[in-house]
Amino acid sequence: MRKVVGLVIAIFVMAVAFHPVSASGSKGESAYYHPYPYGIKPGDIVIGHNPISDLIIPGYWTHTGMIAYYDYNAGDWVVVEAWDDPSAVRLVYLSDFLKRYDTVAVLRVNTNDYIRQAAVNFALQQLGKPYDWGWYTKQVYGDSYYCSELVWASYMAASGGTVDLDANPGFTWRYLYGVAPQEIYDDDDTYVIYYDSA
C-alpha cells in the first residue's frame, strides 16, 4: 500500500512540475506559472523583501532588478540591478539576488518580447552608473539610478513611454515623485509568475 501511495504522490508531483498552471495577468492575459528557474525570460522583474530595509523603504517590497540573460557557463540567470555601491548599476546572479531576501517574486510585464528585450538593452547600457540617492523623484535618462528607478526607466525608454510601471505616477505622500519597488509590484502592467516566502 505504501508503494502505491508513494507512486501516486510521485506521479502527482511530476504532473504539477511539468504541466504549468495558468495564471491571470493584471490586464486579463494569461501566462504560465513555472517554478524557478523555468519560465523566466529576459525582461522579467525580480523583487525582494528585506525586513531591515522596511525601516527606510516604503511598502513591503524593498529591492528590485531585471532578468538580463542566462549564463550557460554558470547555469544561472543574470540580473541587472542598481545597488548602493560605487558602480551601482551592476550584474549579479539570480541565485545570489534571491539569497538576500526572505520573500521574493518574479514579475512579468504585460507587453511583447521586443519591448522586454529593449528594456534589458537599456538597463545594460547603464552599467557602471552611480547610485541615485534621490528616491523622492525619478527620471528616464539620468546619470544615476536607484533600483526601481532603473527598472521603471528601462521600460519607459523601451516602450516610448507607453509602459509605465509606476502604480502612482504622480505625487503621493508615501512615495513622493519617486517609484518604489512596491509600486512596480502593484502596477497594472505587471503580474506575478513566481513567489516564494521563507
- Rounded to an integer in angstroms, the radius of gyration calculated over CA atoms is 18 Å
- By CATH, the topology is endopeptidase fold (from Nostoc punctiforme)
Characterize the main sheet: 6 strands, antiparallel
The global form is: globular
**N-to-C SSE series?**
HEEEEEEHEHHHE
* Count of DSSP-assigned helices: 5
Describe the structure in brief.
With 198 residues, the protein is an alpha+beta fold. The chain is built from 5 helices and 8 strands.
If you had to describe this structure to a student in words, what would you say it looks like?
The chain is 28% helix and 25% strand. The protein is an alpha+beta fold and 198 residues long. The protein has one domain (2-197): endopeptidase domain like (from Nostoc punctiforme) (endopeptidase fold (from Nostoc punctiforme)). The chain has a 6-stranded antiparallel beta sheet. Strand 5 and strand 6 form a beta hairpin. Helix 3 crosses helix 4 (147-159). The radius of gyration is 18 Å and the shape is globular.
List the helices and strands and how they pair.
Layout lengths: L1 H17 L2 E4 L5 E4 L11 E5 L13 E9 L4 E7 L6 E5 H6 L3 E7 L3 H13 L21 H13 L21 H6 L3 E8 L1
Antiparallel strand pairs: 1-2, 3-4, 3-7, 4-5, 5-6, 7-8
